[in-house]
Design a protein that fits this description.
With 70 residues, the protein is an alpha+beta fold. It has 1 helix and 5 strands; from the N terminus they run E-E-H-E-E-E.
Length: 70
């Protein structure tokens, strides 16, 4: 409704179960977009990352783009 858009850059921590445990906003053009991006990314689920056949925690950079409606 605010007609705001832009790209939010996030840092996400993925645990050994493939769940997003922690999301940190690195840059954002709008606080409202930051909240929406973090809430969306926290719902994502991944296949666990394996190192030598054992699941490991990983950090991942994420960019979420919002485009205002015309």
């Amino acid at each position: 409704a605010a007609n705001v858009g832009g790209t939010i850059t996030l840092d996400a921590f993925i645990n050994t179960e493939g769940e997003v445990q922690d999301v940190t906003v690195l840059s954002s053009p709008d606080p409202g977009l930051s909240i929406a991006a973090v809430e969306a990314v926290k719902q994502w689920q991944y296949t666990p990352t394996l190192l030598n056949c054992a699941p490991v925690d990983v950090r991942m950079g994420v960019s979420v783009s919002f485009t205002p409606k015309q």
